[in-house]
Write a structure and sequence with these properties.
The chain has 287 residues and is an alpha/beta fold. It is built from ten helices and seven strands.
Length: 287
């Protein structure tokens, strides 16, 4: 307990899923939380995104741990609004020590229009850049930046080792954004190393959240069935992992986030951490 005692953590995409899991665990470990989320749907993304009620529930769970929660409804694509929200959060909570750039969408399918490429790339890459760059003026020595990548996003856009590429313009935007995040975090780690600010990326496989569990994603995994159910899709979910699992839990990613947010990882930077049941090894993507 108290592994991040006294720290203030910014989390994007904090209203539900991995973001909420990170916020609650880090609060339990002693951190105050700046939680932001779009709390609205994006037209090219088929599944519903989080709501303001979801963000309020995240705040309530943080406060249940006795820690402070500062929340703002912000689209990570809007740098000016994000910059203002972070400044207000820092003013209220006193400082900023950790950035968890977690917000992301995954609009897959050949029916997705070209705008889907723009939306996915802008959320998943530019949203990370906006969060990190607007937070940088508030960070000092010992700070930690943690970026959410993706094993699936690292698969070449033409497919690899029998694994199909992510489908449609949104899939292309997803893959490009996650590949660029890998390079971005490595380069930024070198840039910020002399300032003793570390930068790391976590690459999950399938995670049991709304991004995975929705009708559109079920159809991607089971194109042979009309209107497949979760049970239908779960037959094929394990194909990427070396371990016989369909997915990991949000808490599994949170364990890695907690380590990278804590001083236990004070000399760990530039790391590409795969929390994936061996998927990157199986696909030849780990190096």
């Amino acid at each position: 307990m108290n592994r991040v005692e006294g720290k203030v953590v910014l989390i994007t995409g904090a209203a539900r899923g991995q973001g909420r899991s990170h916020a609650v665990r880090l609060a339990e470990e002693g951190a105050d939380i700046i939680a932001v989320d779009i709390c609205a749907d994006i037209a090219t993304n088929d599944y519903a995104l989080a709501s303001e009620a979801d963000l309020a529930e995240t705040a309530a769970l943080v406060e249940k741990s006795g820690r402070r929660a500062f929340t703002r409804v912000v689209d990570v694509r809007d740098r000016r609004s994000l910059e203002q929200a972070i400044a207000e959060g820092v003013a209220e909570l006193g400082h900023l020590d950790v950035v968890v750039a977690n917000a992301g969408i995954c609009a897959l399918g050949h029916h997705v229009p070209i705008q889907g490429f723009v939306d996915v790339f802008d959320v998943n890459f530019m949203g990370v850049v906006n969060a990190v760059h607007t937070a940088l003026p508030h960070l000092g020595a010992g700070a930690s930046i943690i970026v959410t990548g993706s094993v699936a996003g690292l698969v070449p856009q033409t497919g690899f080792n029998g694994v199909q590429a992510l489908q449609g313009p949104g899939g292309d935007g997803y893959g490009l954004s996650k590949k660029m995040l890998r390079t971005y975090t490595q380069s930024l780690a070198l840039t910020l190393g002399p300032s003793s600010i570390r930068v790391n990326a976590i690459h999950p496989t399938n995670v049991d959240t709304d991004m995975l569990n929705n009708p559109g994603m079920y159809q991607i995994f089971r194109p042979d069935i009309q209107n497949p159910t979760r049970e239908d899709a779960e037959v094929t979910f394990p194909f990427m992992q070396a371990m016989p699992i369909p997915y990991v839990e949000a808490a599994d990613i949170t364990h890695a986030v907690t380590y990278l947010a804590s001083d236990e990882s004070r000399y760990v930077t530039g790391l590409q951490m795969f929390v994936d049941g061996g998927a990157a090894l199986k696909l030849g993507l780990a190096n």
